[in-house]
Amino acid sequence: SSIINRISIGKNTTIGAGAVVTKDIPADCVVVGCPARPIKFKS
């Protein structure tokens, strides 16, 4: 995974292997892809 720039990653968030994070990620979710996108929200 790569994190680009200064961003915020929420608590209890899972970032998939190889994901490229380019913007803030909310809490309680799973993100994957290039660019990283939420695919699932945890409850």
From TrEMBL:
Keyword presence, Signal: no
Keywords of the record: Transferase
Q: Does the keyword Transferase apply?
A: yes
Q: Which domain of life is it from?
A: Bacteria
GO MF annotation list: O-acyltransferase activity
Q: Please give the InterPro entries that the UniProt record associates with this protein.
A: Hexapeptide_acetyltransf (IPR051159), Trimer_LpxA-like_sf (IPR011004)
Q: Which family does it belong to?
A: Belongs to the transferase hexapeptide repeat family.
Please state what the protein is called. Answer: Bacterial transferase hexapeptide repeat protein
> What is the organism of origin for this protein?
Porphyromonas uenonis 60-3
